[in-house]
Amino acid sequence: MELKDKFITSYAPFEAQIIGEVDALRKIRLEGLKTFEAKGFPTKKEEAWKYTSLNSLLKKEYNILPAAVSISKEEVKEFFLKDTDTYKLVFINGVLAVELSDYTSDIATILPMSVAFKNEETLSLLNEYYNQTVNKDDSLTALNTAFAAEGAFIYVGKSKVVDKPIELVYLSTSTEEAVFTQPRNLVIVGENAQVKIVERHQNIGTADTITNVVTEIYSEKHALCDYYKLQNDVAAANLIDNTYIKQGDSSRVCVHTFSFGGKLTRNNLNFYQEGEHIDSTLKGITIIGNKQHVDHYTLVSHNQPNCESHQNYKSIFDDSAVGVFNGKIYVDKIAQKTDGFQQNNNILLSDKATVYTKPQLEIFADDVKCSHGCTIGQLDDEAMFYMRQRGIPQREAKALLMYAFTEEVMSSISIPSLRLMIANLIASKLGVSMDFEI
Amino acid sequence: MLQIKNLHASVEDKEILKGINLEVKAGEIHAIMGPNGAGKSTLSSVIAGNEAFEVTEGEIILEGEELGELAPEERAHKGVFLSFQYPVEIPGVSVTNFMKTAINESRKAQGLEEMPASDMLKKIKEKAELLEIDRKFLSRSLNEGFSGGEKKRNEIFQMAMLEPKLAILDETDSGLDIDALRIVANGVNKLKSKDNAIIVITHYQRLLDYIVPDFVHVLHDGKIVKTGGKELALELEEKGYDWIKSSVE
């Protein structure tokens, strides 16, 4: 059976399993299912998927309703921030891992989505926000909407500053059957509130996984939200990340995406500016090799005047890796004084590596400042010789140059232990044991 | 310390060095002078192991060991230092971070432990003072946005940190005003000892007023055509390179 049909025929048993859900959610699910049924999985015929094919992934058999597995803290401690007190929501194969989680807070409401839907107080928020930012025509988002059963619910009330970072960790463990999971996150940052969130996806099993995750973030007036996405560094993992962000007046949202592997990674990152004096920042570091594929598809929709957006993506490709960057900046005709900036720099370490980079500017206002730039290059031979002349061996010199290349993104990570973790991940990715952060 | 025997080197099949012979002993300073295009920078690059050049014939021997196929970093670990004519800008790597990495990688290659952080800081402070370098300067990205003089001073700072056996200063005086020239030359003179050697590559004589050579060699069309004492530099300054050209051709 084709995967699409499998999902459709699985809906009824899935619904029976999560019986007792509120009617409002059921209606949303059915709409999602209908859209997915009409559209199916995206193909390369669609402009937005021109360079990224899901074909080979979809041919596999997946368990689309995997069961809970228990793992010890010791086994997974490397996937958490070190020496940093955090709130934790941990999911294994899409199911909440209670013993690894720690989300009790006096400051914010942090709950597993399944619990939030059963709670009177959060239910009213869900009715107001859930599925409201998403592109309802997007088939993968619709598929998630139909089947999402678990994820993170985060609500930060007016003027609350969350005292420690929130870690959302999604682990896959399957060693035999391939697994398809669909987490769903909702983050509401109230007026003047502040929060830092780290979302990590990690396959620790050996079987293939597809994660089709949807995250909605609402940041109200003057809210600050730093959101970090740390994506798989193993080969047997595929990730489709659909993130939708709606910002109010004078709010600032910054999303960093770190893509260090996986077989296929697609990031659909959408910002909608619905107020004035908004700052939206999108940054990314991609380091891949072999036949890995990472596709960043960004949209910043400037719908109101006097807002800014900053995009800065740094990517390094080795072997036969393929990278795609498609960055769309839309400026509505009323969005005067928009300042939109986009930069995408790439290093190709191999003749067989490929990068497709495309800025897409749609500007309907006449008093705006929008700039974009992209570069594709190799490591500078002169710089390599210079560093080696000072005694730094070739591999280390290369690693140091590449780390330096990512500096503009690294330097804006606001959680020191996360920056250290990423620096170490980059070092191991580049095959060196160097302390970059000295 | 250094022996160069019948060295020939090419870049993209064009022969630049056409049989260089040179011997440098510990404790000596040698100056290599010559007109543009004579092969001065090629010689320094080849000694340092720049892979853009191909050695087609001859030998470079450092303390009895042929450098032949050694990579640039291996030569550096054996004590070869090249002060670049055009130091490369490396955004995102601070001067301090770069030096810590370079020193620790060299120590690693020699089977030594990393230098303790406190020793490193002390050394950086001491050498920065020698070159009259401000502390703030050390946290800036390597060579990025540095003036010509700052770049050269930073090169000699790195030389002071790495304490090479053989230092080659390639056109270190270019881009320096008179004060910077004095600071740089003073630094070099302080670093000189009976156990190390320095090759100064220069187009002009003025640096040699400060760093006084034991020998002066004139390079012309890929060969050393004249060797003398420090007075040869003055003679060259007075008569110009045409004098060499006409006396050779």
UniProtKB/TrEMBL annotation, chain A:
SUF system FeS cluster assembly SufBD core domain mapped to chain residues: 176-405
Pfam families reported for this sequence: SUFBD_core, SufBD_N
Superkingdom of origin: Bacteria
Alphabetical GO biological process terms: iron-sulfur cluster assembly
Domain SUF system FeS cluster assembly SufBD N-terminal: 2-167
Family membership: Belongs to the iron-sulfur cluster assembly SufBD family.
PANTHER family associated with the record: PROTEIN ABCI7, CHLOROPLASTIC
UniProt-recorded name of the protein: Fe-S cluster assembly protein SufD
Organism: Myroides pelagicus
GN (gene name): sufD
UniProtKB/TrEMBL annotation, chain B:
Residues of the ABC transporter domain: 2-246
Keywords, alphabetical: ATP-binding, Nucleotide-binding
Single GO molecular function: ATP binding
PANTHER family: ABC TRANSPORTER I FAMILY MEMBER 6, CHLOROPLASTIC
Protein family per UniProt: Belongs to the ABC transporter superfamily. Ycf16 family.
Protein name: Fe-S cluster assembly ATPase SufC
